[in-house]
Amino acid sequence: MAARQQNAQYNKMMHTPVHRLIVALAIPTIISMMISSIYNAADTYFVGRLGTSASAATGIVFGLMAVLQAVGFMCGHGSGSIVARCLGQKKPQDASVTVSTGLALVVIITLAITALGLIFVDPLMRLLGATPTILPYARIYGRCILAAAPFITASFLMNNVLRYEGRAVLGTTGLTIGALLNIAGDPFLMFKCHLGIFGAGLSTALSQIIAFGLLFYFFLSGRTTTRLSLRLVKLKAPVILEILSVGMPSLCRQGLNTVSTLLLNIAAAGWGDAAISAMSIVNRVTFMVFAVVIGIGQGLQPVAGFSYGAQAWQRLKSAFVFTVGLSTGVALALALAVGLNVKGVVSAFIGDPKVIAIAAPALVYQCAALVFTPPFTMTNMTYQSAGIAGKATFLSLLRNGLCFIPLILILPRTLGLMGVQTAQPVADALTFLIALPFTLDLFKTLNRRAAGQHTKK
């Protein structure tokens, strides 16, 4: 039975037309990411009813969540990429060793983060940009997130492995149920139980623990190609280094999200809590749009991993070209939808006119730059799925690192508040220009390999 299921999954991943397969894999991932974005936005919305400083605290702790995502995605994408290539080579046992080792590794790393974070919670919140008025709220919210951190990162890993297996629906089911529970839990714990911001943090922590339980059950119940077992854990240097090297682009990408959030909060702090709150809202809304692009790319990743492992170059080329076109069109449509109604979008989060006045133009600038993000995002994801860690890591350093960091340090000093509002859009445009040669080179390489393979046949 297990062998038949594995063969059926292999045939699905290698013989279903790429446009249909990528869309089928992307839809549950997009749903999962959108619901996750909505429940992040729900925290901002409900906490915003406690005041501007409390609302800004969610933006501060969002930086902590980015750290946890960095760890979870590093081990998850590293493990998942290897899993997909192993399954493309029809080596399910090697894939199971990878996911079991990856899960053990991510839990060990996160337990250390939790311990240090709880001991030094106040310095951590200040480092992330909390002002004296924001700190009391950020401290409470941050402790709840730290307590649930091992479950959060383990969920990220399992969800990514399920995607790379081509079983995105299972990953989406676990995370979606957790997200919906959080959305329902926020108003109940915050206002019905009168727990305030602690209720928001507790709701997030409990929902993440439940999501972990569901995802873990899927692996234990035999619904996956890979298996989780302590006997398969190999905490040896070659296995760990392969997971970490392939996952390094995700660590850079997510880690730089934390750094960029920190620097953005510090830059915005010069214009008060209203500016921090405004840019936090802009980041949340932008992420909801960008999440769709990422979701489409995550539909590409398992196809790319399987195809690379099986050396199916024409299939990989077709998948890449289709995904770049689809994601660019979707990004343009969503950017227009949000950009033409920015005040209404921002007002849905908070009614403070000072916050709206700062957030609205910043959101317009960001929407204008979103169309630049799909090509370099898909290029980065394809390189990572193929295990080409060097190029993938460099590309992941661009958007929120090599391009954004100098801009957020320079533009506010020269353009004032407008510099804060435009740093990320300008960084997106620069990233597109720097990454364009890599995109063209990837296409030419795949075209050449596909042509060579066709000639041999």
Task: Note down, in words, how this protein is organized.
GO terms for molecular function: antiporter activity; xenobiotic transmembrane transporter activity. It holds the Pfam family MatE. It is found in: Cell membrane. Its main location: membrane. This protein is mostly helical and 457 residues long. The chain has one domain. 87% of the residues lie in helices and 0% in strands. The protein is built from 19 helices and no strands. It is globular, with a radius of gyration of 21 Å.
Task: Summarize it.
The protein is mostly helical and 457 residues long. The chain has helices at 2-15, 18-48, 52-88, 92-119, 121-127, 135-147, 149-165, 168-192, 196-220, 237-269, 273-310, 313-339, 342-347, 353-369, 373-385, 389-396, 398-402, 404-415, 417-456. The model has no long low-confidence stretch (mean pLDDT 87).
Extended strand count: 0
Quick check: average pLDDT?
87
Helicity range: over 70%
Gross geometry: globular
* Regions with little confidence, pLDDT below 50 for 5+ residues: none
Number of helices: 19
Q: Can you give keywords for this protein?
A:
single chain; 457 residues; mainly alpha; 0% strand; globular; antibiotic resistance; xenobiotic transmembrane transporter activity; transmembrane helix; antiporter activity
